[in-house]
Amino acid sequence: MKKKITLILAIIVTTMSWAQSPEKMSYQAVVRDADNALVANQEVGMQISILQSTVSGSSVYTETHTPTTNTNGLVSLEIGTGTTSDDFTTIDWSAGPYFIKTETDPEGGTNYTITGTSQLMSVPYALHAKTAENITGPLNETDPTFTAWDKSTGISITESQISDLSDGSATNELNTSVALNGTDLEITDAGGTITTDLSSLTTVVALERELFKTSGTFTVPNDVTSIRVTMIGGGGSGGSRGPGGEFGAGGEPGNYVRNQIVPVTPGATLAVTVGAGGAPATCSIPWINGCPGNQGGTSSVDALVTATGGAGGCGSCLSGGDDKSGKVGPFGTFGSGSDGIDIFEVNSDVGNPGMVLIEYYFW
């Protein structure tokens, strides 16, 4: 789960003319150092190998380059044009699968500290189409020859009803099930099950979550450069009842921030504040009017994201124009406003606290 991304690469076959395929492939990579920082505007050493059959197979071609990265850490080169004692044109692309292995020295030498291997998929094998240039002589057709049609069996039509559409074979019927078992795709029909390994096509992405109900700290994992934050401020407390019987209104829920993505520095420690619920309204006896509730506390992640608390409910609200019940926050009790108290109560209930949810991805 903690795999560090140090090399992002793309392999592109150069455009082919109708007459002849060029004996080279375009290659691009983004280079990062051990601290995950871009290696920009710097000469790097690279060794490219074409491996046959497996990721640890024998090399059929090896060459070296010393390209210079641009301001974004990107290098561009053409496989087939580097320094080598091998012959790129002798690779038999029909004898695959083939894998490309890249080794990189960010300092520009041959001390290769960054290594990556990936399978060459269908695009590079366009080079194999050039074998058609060498075909001479007649082509011998090997498909079976149609001789006769046995009209004794097949489709029957009786009074506009079609019957007997089966060919009598139990091994070529439609698929009965398709299932993904891990990275294996399993397709089953009457003839059995065919399994295809899809592991070379998968990228594992793990979502991590951390929910804060009380204030604390969050340490950014080393490979994480952005986080997604959802938070609610503390709920306001309700207003108290007035001496004339007027109701106190319920407090408001805390403000809601949903799925806000912010950049962070790997390894940094962030202060997480969970907004407290508003303190109860307190009136001195004898009181003239009901007391308003208090605002809930602000939730925050450092100074990156904030959500202010909900307002307190009013005291001695006019009869019929108040809402004695507290307001419910976006996640139920989190950040909810409290009730306004009646029946000769001087004070009100405290608001509910907010919450902070931090999410991030690992590749």
Q: Report Rg.
A: 35 Å
Shape call: flat
How would you state the average pLDDT, rounded? 78
What's the N-to-C terminus distance? 7 Å
How would the blueprint of this fold be written?
Blueprint: E1 7-13, E2 25-31, E3 45-52, E4 59-65, E5 74-79, E6 98-105, E7 114-119, E8 156-158, E9 161-163, E10 177-181, E11 184-189, E12 192-197, E13 206-212, E14 216-219, E15 226-232, E16 256-263, E17 269-273, E18 299-301, E19 305-307, E20 355-362
Antiparallel strand pairs: 1-2, 2-5, 3-4, 3-6, 6-7, 8-9, 10-11, 11-12, 13-20, 14-17, 15-16, 15-20, 17-18, 18-19
Describe, in plain words, how this protein is organized in 3D.
This protein is an all-beta fold. It contains no helices and 20 strands. It has strands spanning 7-13, 25-31, 45-52, 59-65, 74-79, 98-105, 114-119, 156-158, 161-163, 177-181, 184-189, 192-197, 206-212, 216-219, 226-232, 256-263, 269-273, 299-301, 305-307, 355-362. The strands form 6 sheets. It has a 4-stranded antiparallel sheet, with no helix packed on it. It has a 4-stranded antiparallel sheet with strand order 13-20-15-16, with no helix packed on it. It has a 4-stranded antiparallel sheet with strand order 14-17-18-19, with no helix packed on it. The protein starts with 6 loop residues before the first strand and ends with a strand. The model is unreliable at 1-6 and 8-19 (pLDDT under 50).
